[in-house]
Amino acid sequence: MAFKNSYLKKVYDDVAARNKGETEFLQAVGEVLESLEPVVEQNPDIIKTGVIDRIVEPERFIQFRVSWVDDAGNVRVNRGFRVQFNSAIGPYKGGLRLHPSVTGSVIKFLGFEQTFKNSLTGLPMGGGKGGSDFDPKGKSDAEVMRFCQSFMTELCKHIGADTDVPAGDIGVGAREIGYMYGQYKRLRNEFTGVLTGKGLTFGGSLGRTQATGYGLLYLTEEMLRCMKNDSVAGKTVVISGSGNVAIYATEKAQQLGAKVVALSDSDGYIHDPDGIKLDIVKDIKEVRRARIKEYVQSVPTATYTEGCTGIWSIPCDVALPCATQNELDGASADKLIQGGVTAVAEGANMPCTPEAVEKLQAAGILFAPAKAANAGGVAVSGLEMSQNSLRYGWTFEEVDSKLHDIMLGIFHAAYDASEKYGSAGNLVMGANIAGFLKVAEAMIAQGVAY
Ligand SMILES: NC(=O)C1=CN([C@@H]2O[C@H](COP(=O)(O)OP(=O)(O)OC[C@H]3O[C@@H](n4cnc5c(N)ncnc54)[C@H](O)[C@@H]3O)[C@@H](O)[C@H]2O)C=CC1
Ligand SMILES: O=C(O)CCC(=O)C(=O)O
């Protein structure tokens, strides 16, 4: 990390010393602190409030044992986490990830980012995140249910509709939220909006399934319109991943008139130059929970290639990384630039490495960071909380129109902050600053012992 400001360098060094080896968390903290240099320069009094020293330390970090019994009768043990990062502007809010790569560092980076993302939505939500190193791949429905029940048996002691409201993330969709909600209700005997992403028959919001992918395209469209007088229509788009975010990003991109030519999973990627047939992908991923390579059995003109990073060699106008953190590195950024990319927007959380972001920005590529670009999911989660509190449900069109307005608001908040703090068009800096300022103001108003 290259800090010009000695105070920010000291904050970063303290975080690095306290969180040794937590590379993902340190990467996320370093990026935000770098963005705050002009804020500290313009308002040196902020140092005395200690708000920056406080915002990088989670309010609470919970780690717990999750034991469950597999179909063969064996006892299995996983590690569960919930980080309650910041509650200055609302109850902790953020998803749960089930993936073998989950560690304390991954959960902390996600919870830290969530704090600023939630602030950008304009809704009253603090930052949190959780999950487990449980691997849902290859598990039966009954095993997933038993795991989710055991996980919630501990998690329910720490969450609540006005305290902390988890939702889905990688490996957690409608099925897992249903099992967890059922267990919460059994244990607590209360029907509240304690989770979002719920099924539509028990308090879920229309539009939550589509929200992150649709929101990503609403923001990308606004970025192209305002910064390049252009639009998504007619563009060739490459999207990584083939989960919730990637599928609904593809759907909205196609509705806006773009051609999506590639998708991937953790084994490899498909390239369909004629345009991805989304109904086939939905059947493979949402119904059969199978691998993306099966696509070429239905579409023989498409190709399948093993490995994840090759997808960025496919020439495109717009690239939307929607799989996982650090999936797009400096070499992949070079390939995208050579392939003529003009805009990159992050659907996943922190999918581009710092080197990739630097290269894309230096090449003049429009770049929308995750905190802004993928905030649509949590925004509609916030709308689900509102509907639960009202004991009411809005139509799909009502939710979608609010989502659209929120995403445009996020783009303009980030753009305006980038201008005000001297880096017009640098949306990484703008999103970090705009997200930070609201949380910081609330923390200062609430006093030092939060
Ligand atoms: N679901 C949501 O509402 C939101 C999700 N996100 C982020 O979006 C990303 C994707 O999440 P979801 O779509 O919800 O998860 P998901 O579990 O529905 O799908 C994840 C997909 O990524 C693929 N994948 C995993 N590692 C990969 C790799 N190295 N290369 C290529 N593909 C890989 C998986 O095979 C799967 O198809 C994550 O970073 C998540 O944190 C961000 C905001 C909201
Ligand atoms: O809907 C939510 O509460 C969380 C979504 C999420 O995990 C994210 O924005 O990364």
TrEMBL record:
Example of a GO biological process term: glutamate biosynthetic process
Keyword field: NAD, Nucleotide-binding, Oxidoreductase
Entry-linked InterPro entries: Aminoacid_DH-like_N_sf, Glu/Leu/Phe/Val/Trp_DH, Glu/Leu/Phe/Val/Trp_DH_C, Glu/Leu/Phe/Val/Trp_DH_dimer, Glu/Leu/Phe/Val_DH_AS, Glu_DH, Glu_Leu_Phe_Val_DH, NAD(P)-bd_dom_sf
Record-annotated Glutamate/phenylalanine/leucine/valine/L-tryptophan dehydrogenase C-terminal domain positions: 205-447
Pfam families with a match to the protein in the record: ELFV_dehydrog, ELFV_dehydrog_N
Residues that bind substrate: K93, Q114, K117, G168, S381
Gene Ontology CC terms, in alphabetical order: cytosol
Catalytic residues, chain numbering: K129 (proton donor)
Gene3D superfamilies: Glutamate Dehydrogenase, chain A, domain 3 (1.10.285.10), Leucine Dehydrogenase, chain A, domain 1 (3.40.50.10860), NAD(P)-binding Rossmann-like Domain (3.40.50.720)
CDD domains, per the entry: NAD_bind_2_Glu_DH
PROSITE patterns on file: GLFV_DEHYDROGENASE
Binding site for NAD(+): T212, N244
Family: Belongs to the Glu/Leu/Phe/Val dehydrogenases family.
One Gene Ontology molecular-function label: nucleotide binding
Assembly mode: Homohexamer.
Species whose genome carries this gene: Harryflintia acetispora
Protein name: Glutamate dehydrogenase
Site feature location: Important for catalysis: D169
